[in-house]
## 1
Amino acid sequence: MRLSVIIPVYNGEGVLDRCLERLRQSTFRDYECIVVDDASTDQSAAVAARYGASVMALERNGGSARARNRGAEQAQGKILLFLDADVCVHPQTLAQVDAYFRAHPAVDAVIGSYDDTPADPGFISQYKNLFHHYVHHTSRTEAWTFWAGCGAIRREAFLAAGGFDESYTRPCIEDIELGFRLRTRGRRIDLDPAIQVTHLKRWTFCGLLRSDLFDRGIPWFRLMLRDRTMPSDLNVNARHRLSVALVFAVVLLCGAVFTGHLAGSPWPLLLVTAAAALLFYLNFDLYRFLARKRGLRFAAQAIPLHWLYYGYCGVAVGAGLSLHLWDRLRPHRPELSQPWPRTTR
């Protein structure tokens, strides 16, 4: 079954070189590679050409959603495999994708996972990647979202859905939004964590906050409000939602104590201790996983960062709800509030 590997890139010549080198080492050979250069100002197009990829050079930068759509229009394969430019496939990744669709004819799309050996050695990068790896390896097989970092979809299903929503002009939740549309239309998306790629991205603390809050958390919650659905899947399941509530309970109780509103009462300290203990218990399996992979010290350092994650997830809920209500009060609602965003071709 021929695959079309579609890779959008914008000023990513360094990571693209490693991405295409690893792709060339694939054991599966029946594929075409389409690199969509989203008006880069570096040598990304030249790197792609050097590896023999089919290069589409766009005249203006329009975002990865638009770039993927342009690549899909040119694709000849029955299966479209979307990869980010900063990931490296394993030698067997493409073969696993092909085998999965052959073994599951009722499946319309399948997503994979980052592996547990990210390229960047920094603590933030290691934590972010391992958290993603853990979530994808502990979630249910049938998913509600699509993932364009390493996600494959039957070409017929992709075209019938209208592709990615091009109103997302920067990397955001365009893949999640596509997954929602696919599932609402009765399409099946599976998660197979055995299909893995290595992530090359270097994460910083500020970059982590900006991405998780503004590119993922807020628009994702607005999407759930728009479609009036909140599937218990991946990192929005019941355990994660309770963890968000517990983090805010701890913050509010500590704030009340420090401001003197509950001075002299033993209850705030007891409640804070109980909430923190429950929060640790709910996420103990993750911390045990981190300790097993990187040691106890790494796991202990990750706990405050993980609890902070739940904190800004709560902020995302509040901000997303406020924006949703504001949109409903406006006479002309933005594109996100429409039943299904239209794709500009």
Note: The chain has twelve helices and nine strands.
## 2
Amino acid sequence: MSLARTIAQSRRERLLALLADGAFHSGERLAKRLRISRAGIWKAIESLREMGIEVQSVPRQGYRLPNPVDLLDKDELKEAMSAATRDRLDRTDVLLTVDSTNRHVIDNPVVESGRGQVCITELQTAGRGRRGRSWLAPFGSGICLSIGWQFAEAPPDFSALSLAVGVSAARALKRFGADVKLKWPNDLLWQQRKLGGILIEMRGESAGPAHVVIGIGVNMRMPSATRIALAEKQAALIADVHEILRDRTPTRNQLTGAFVDEIVTMLQTFATRGFDPFIDDWRQLDSLAGASVKVIGASATTFGIARGVDRDGTLLVDVDGELRRFVSGEVSLRAVK
């Protein structure tokens, strides 16, 4: 990055820090704090708007964000992790904007076996969910997190990794009092509404080192307009952490630190023992256990009763007395109304 772009990026970040309280700040006061001209402030505000960050301006009152924003902070994030987790991470990137946190981690140099790296961003311009869907997260409204990890070799039950990540994410939320459910293969639910999702990407061979990138998107405090847009686009209602915990809602740094803690701990166990230590917890959190479901495949739709998962992470469905197996990544699952 050039010096000019670095200065502009730093200026945007400092400006956001001043506006994060949601109160009005005059252009004159902002210019003094940042030691630039009023014109420089206007230019920086326009730059934020071009990034998709809404900044309101009112004559004789100044500029403000529509709501206070809990900004991500590298030092606070590291403080929210345990010392054991910090010791396992080779790098922690906290970004203002990126196309995809998963792609950012994939593009970084691969870490040594048994070690990881983290990337989290305020804005993600090309975030992806399962089956190529986009992941929408307006500025300050959620957590867009990726964790890269290097296995010495592909672990047993690798196909069940997303389910083990789901258990870890549920444990992290439980630390703050949020009880969530899991929907096969990679959704976090609260009251049957989507709270978050998981996307796993892997680089490696069947034998030898395997590099995995775990992407997690979680709704923290979603604007009503975004809720409507998501419902129209995905035909699914959503939930957010603030709705669940209200005045007990942790900061995004605190919750992200808990996610990283639980997932890094899980990965060390999963490397040698696979899904087995996590399957009982997953079954307890299974939102579809015993429910009538339909499984939508590439060429057919199957109706039956969900019977949990096998030890390799495949979905088990009772279809007229026959137990059928469905593999992650090839089907989608919806409860029958």
Note: The chain is about 35% helix and 25% strand.
## 3
Amino acid sequence: MRNRTRLVTIGVAAAGAFIVIMFLQSSGQGQRPARLDGHPNLSGIWQALNEANWDLEAHAARPGFLTQPGVHPLAEVPAAPALAMGAVGSVPGSIGVVEGGTIPYQPWALAQKKDNQQHWLDRDPEVKCFLTGVPRSMYLPHPFQITQGGRKIEIAFAYSSSGRTIHMEKVDPLPDDTYNGFSLGRWEGDTLVVDTTGFNGKTWFDRAGNFASDALKVTERFTPAGNLNDMFVVRYEATIEDPTVFTRSWKISMPLYRRVEPNAQLMEFRCVEFVEELAFGHLRRQQLVKHYEGDTLNIDITRKVPNDPTVLYQRDYVMPPKK
């Protein structure tokens, strides 16, 4: 009887210890090995804290994500889609993350970039919840989780519940080009180096219209900063090569920060569902917030006059025809 009681007590204690360990691991408080298979352990939840997704290059703050000339050509004011958002719809300034300061576009590509910026709301893949590709997925304003294994490194993104695989062994490339491309990784000392090719040419680098073609090649470098036992920062670099669009290769760099708050985890951001009205709203018999006139998209902004809640007025923002 005593032996049976002792076994039950040991079993309960072991189960309790297992629960505590699982809780600590899930809450981000558990101990993680500094190395896996002799390499730095990058497993964890990470996030970039900068303005790169707005514009990789240095830029001043703007009053709206879309603007139009005000009383003076140099005095930009928010266009109708951003007007009602006030300061929330503004663009924060940034010192930039491009080494050397400027992206070396070919002349035709620079003109295309400027045209993209003017048509941002109608063209940016992020607006429609398409995958944002590499390297943009690494500095979206959403966290991502790295799960490190011997032959594969998986990265899960909160944005659109998407992900990418870094193959640490030689495997056949994908049969078709994709938004995230095909990634092969290797270790150079304590730095994880990832070469990615096989892009479909449909992704942008940011909301400023910076873009590349399907000839894009991205070489990423993940280098731990500080002590591996309490690694909270990884230096992230991405070298961009695309002879179709740029005159030479160029590089961006930034820190990635580990999320260390209790119960740190990826939350769902099912943006596919969030853009259903944008993608399929034109099929409604009665439009909610927009309507088409031929190929021109009109976004209707209706607001109450502050001093008279019974009076409404409407402003239309006319998007240029789709190309």
Note: Residues 2-26 form the longest helix (25 residues).
